[in-house]
Amino acid sequence: MFKNSYFSRKLHSLLGVIPVGFFLIEHLLTNYKAFSGGHAAFLDQVFWLHELPLVLLLEIVGIWIPLAYHAIYGLYVAYTARNNVSNYGYFRNQMFFLQRVTGVITFLFVAFHFFQTRLQISFGNVEQAAIGVHMHGIATNTIYFIMYCIGIVAAVFHFSNGMWSFLVSWGITVGPRAQRVSTYVWMAVFVVMSVMFILSLTAFMNPDFSQLPKMAKG
């Protein structure tokens, strides 16, 4: 289907940053409100996002279609790619292998998370204002909590390591020194984002999320 074409690879790489990478960062900042500001602040951020003009169109065109292409082509790459020991060392080949593994895990996690949250809201099974309460139920379930932690770490690693590859493939970090510095930078990003996401998840375990805050009632 894809034939590993130059255009397909470049589009896959670009969509991993714009808009999929931006969506991951936005998702992080929104959910981090649960940790930094509590239930009411989290809902304020959620309501602001869903009050944007043409929000459904923005989601479909700006998130779900690019995400679907990135995921489907990424699965194709994971299935067909082989490590390149002649051009890259052991560490980079390990990172490439982990990139493929975390890509599959992230795909499954995003699909599961979408089913549990956004799709349930669309079906009317969960009210928009009750998303914090819904997340409380998910976070306080031990199995779901572990699954989410694995999915979060996989998604953040996939993004961070993917950014390293993006900078190389687009000719931004061309020399060994630049690529080494980039490795350290994106390792730090991986750690910071993972911690922020997991703090956000643990924040949903707070009893304050077990019921609607006063500002969201009625």
From TrEMBL:
Family annotation (InterPro entries): Cytochrome_b-558 (IPR011138), Succ_DH_cyt_b558_Firmicute (IPR016002), SuccDH_FuR_B_TM-su (IPR000701)
Membrane-crossing residue ranges in chain numbering: 12-32, 52-76, 97-115, 145-172, 184-205
Keyword field: Membrane, Transmembrane, Transmembrane helix
Domain of life from the UniProt record: Bacteria
Protein name: Succinate dehydrogenase cytochrome b558 subunit
